[in-house]
Amino acid sequence: MSKIVDPRFSSLRPRKISTRFRRTSSLVAAGKTPQYKVVANIPYYITGKIVQLFLKQEHKPKSMTLLMQKEVANNIVAKVGQLNLLAISVQLYGDAKLVTKVPAFKFHPAPKVESAVIHIELFSKPKYKLKDEQKFFRVLRACFAGKRKQIHNTLTNNLGLEKTVALQSLENINVDPTARPQQLTIEQWIKLVDSIELPN
Question: Which of 96, 102, 146, 156 could cross-link to 115 by cystine, CB 3.0-4.6 Å?
Answer without folding.
Answer: 102
